[in-house]
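USER: Please consider what follows.
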Amino acid sequence: MLEAVQSRFPASHYVMVDDKPQLLGARKRVLADSLTTVFVRQGHYALKASNTAIDPAPDLSIQRIGELLDFGLTDFLPGAAPTCAANLQQE
C-alpha cells in the first residue's frame, strides 16, 4: 500500500500517525528522512505496546489524537522543533 499512496499522492515528505509502534517503525525504515512518524499513546495497540521498545523511535509522541490540532504543517518537517502541545514528547 505504501507504493500506492506515494504514487497517488506524490510528495517530498510524508507524516504517518498511528498507535501501532511496529508499523511506524517498519515504514520509517523504508522511507527514512522523508517520513515523520507520530506515535499516539492512546488506543488498544498503544497500551499493548507500552513495554515494548520502538525501533526506530517515533519522531513525535502524543498522548491523544486530538493533540494533532495543536500542530502546524511545519512542525512535521525534518529538524523542526514543534512549538505546540506542552505534553508533546520528542522521542
Summary: The helical segments are 2-8, 21-31, 44-48. The radius of gyration is 13 Å. The first strand starts at residue 14 and ends at 18. The first helix runs from residue 2 to 8.
